[in-house]
Amino acid sequence: MKLLRHVAAIVTLIVLATMVADATDPGSLQDFCVATNGPAGVFVNGRFCKDPNLAKAKDFFLSGLDIVRNTNNPVGSTVTPANVAQIPGLNTLGISIVRVDYAPNGGLNPPHTHPRATEILVVLEGTLSVGFVTSNPNNTLITKVLKKGDVFVFPVSLIHFQQNIGKTRAVAIAALSSQNPGVITIANAVFNSKPPISSDVLTKAFQVDKSLVQYLQSRSWWINN
């Protein structure tokens, strides 16, 4: 009986470990898997690998994250990604980063989610007000003011934002736990989907006048990814 309990405990641990593993990007069974384009019309959960013997340093390299970005846009921020699309060698490694530049006096990385990644952000310059909202039913706002050198974590899939509350520009670098974390910018997804969500649906969901919903659907929304 005691042996059976031990076996049951081991099986439980294996199941839990498998569940954790399935919640992240697929693990690598080799040193690396440099992404390459596969056959036309074929899609996989990740990217095809090129022959590792043909790998070059450029497959693992990206320059330019030191460059100050133009934030002259409707939200006052610019996101510069460094994921598998820019660095093919990230394929299967389960990590990527972004640089975010924020305009002075309110530059905003608007509310968004990363469906496949937790994010950890470090402030390099400036002062940011950041936060995320927990899931239903509480929808609690967890928020903090960050200064240079401060770090903050945004849990996977939760809606979050950052805003520059200082009078000078701000810069942050964020690491994400996926080679391709994805971005869903909330306003753009809701009011600028193609084809559009029925205004009747949005009117009832947001409990506002239909003319306001139609106005919001007529706007051009900044994706910022």
Automatic annotation (TrEMBL):
Compartmental location: Secreted, Extracellular space, Apoplast
Positions bound to oxalate: N109, H114, E119
Record has Metal-binding as a keyword: yes
One Pfam family matching this protein: Cupin_1
Signal sequence range: 1-23
Gene3D superfamilies documented for this protein: Jelly Rolls
Binding residue positions for Mn(2+): H112, H114, E119, H160
Disulfide bonds: C33-C49
UniProt entry tagged with the keyword Membrane: no
Residue intervals passing through the bilayer: none
Alphabetically ordered keywords of this record: Apoplast, Disulfide bond, Manganese, Metal-binding, Secreted, Signal
GO cellular component: apoplast
Cupin type-1 domain residues: 63-214
PROSITE patterns: GERMIN
GO molecular function: manganese ion binding
Similarity annotation: Belongs to the germin family.
Protein name: Germin-like protein
Taxonomic classification: Eukaryota, Viridiplantae, Streptophyta, Embryophyta, Tracheophyta
